Amino acid sequence: MNDAIDRLLAKDARDTIPDERFTRRVMQALPAPGVRTRPWLKPALILGSAALGSALAVALSPGGSQLLEGFRDLMQFRLLTAGALTGLGASAALLVSAIIFAVSSD
Amino acid sequence: MTAPAAPNDAALILAVQQRDDRPAYAELVRRHQSQVRTVLRRLTRGDQGLADDLAQETFVLAWRNIARFRFEARFSTWLYRIAFNAWQSETRKKREVLLDVEDDAPLMADASFDEMPDVASRVDLERALATLSDGERAAIAACYYADLSHEEAAQALGIPVGTVKTHVLRAKAKLRTRLGAKEKTR
């Protein structure tokens, strides 16, 4: 590997490019302070909206009463009633969808 | 009294991650700008304007994503990965980037010009590098200008290690032939 081409490439790679205001240009191109995206913010917003939307849907939909009944069952550890299973299924589906969306929407 | 030692890259990165420390990031840019710009100049066939635009994009992207840097690789390796992606995205806007090995390209091995490149000028080298395929140029940029190992280069470019090795061998053979031929005509 240590032939003339290696030496020529290594020599060329060692040459340095003077900064010449490059760093200043980069620093000016950075987002303003405080604007930098916080990685947790988007997933938190998506999961929060999903939770809020689900709560509203349960409260306002005609089938909501059955779901509410199901959640009451869950709180009393009655896990095998129809309402509890519906509530568990709906919550799991919403949670998984929200997590997938939150992770993939970056 | 001796001057306090300059903070290493890791200390600067931590300062940026924890406090959004802009002067620390400026120091990181100052330290790495030359190599990143050199690599991109070689990738863009010597187009200095485009290379500097891509280098700026690289450092801005690195700033945005520095919270995800986990110290699993060298900071420079991580930067080159971003730079290679920026170059590939830019090139794809104009044409397809081919990083695979071209089957019909013969593996040249002409040792008769082994001593010729010593006297070749940088302009000759730049011109010779510009004639290489995307994959060969990228492999040479990664292994020589970015000083990555074959494994790191493969990771950064998203191609198998074997392909990187083949590209490097073919690129060097082509450079040897081209620079040797150039020297013969002088």
Structure description:
With 106 residues, chain A is mainly alpha-helical. Chain A has helices spanning 4-14, 22-29, 41-60, 64-75, 82-104. Chain A has a domain at 41-103. The two termini of chain A are 43 Å apart. Chain B is built from 8 helices and no strands. Chain B is 67% helix and 0% strand. Chain B starts with 8 loop residues before the first helix and ends with a helix. With 186 residues, chain B is mainly alpha-helical. Chains A and B meet through helix 1 and helix 2 of A and helix 2, helix 3, helix 6 and helix 8 of B.
Which key phrases capture this entry?
heterodimer; A: 106 residues; mainly alpha; 5 helices; 70% helix; B: 186 residues; 8 helices; 67% helix; elongated
* Beta-strand share of residues of chain B: under 5%
The topology string of helices and strands of chain B comes to HHHHHHHH
Give the N-to-C terminal Cα separation of chain A: 43 Å
Radius of gyration of chain A (CA) equals 28 Å
Give the mean pLDDT of chain B: 85
Q: Largest beta sheet of chain B, briefly? A: none
Short structural summary:
The complex is a heterodimer of chains A (106) and B (186). With 106 residues, chain A is mostly helical.
What does the secondary structure layout of this molecule look like, with pairings?
The complex is a heterodimer of chains A (106) and B (186).
Chain A: H1 4-14, H2 22-29, H3 41-60, H4 64-75, H5 82-104
Helix pairs in contact in A: 3-4, 3-5, 4-5
Chain B: H1 9-19, H2 22-43, H3 48-65, H4 75-94, H5 122-130, H6 134-145, H7 150-157, H8 161-184
Helix pairs in contact in B: 1-2, 2-3, 2-4, 2-6, 3-4, 4-7, 5-8, 6-7, 6-8, 7-8
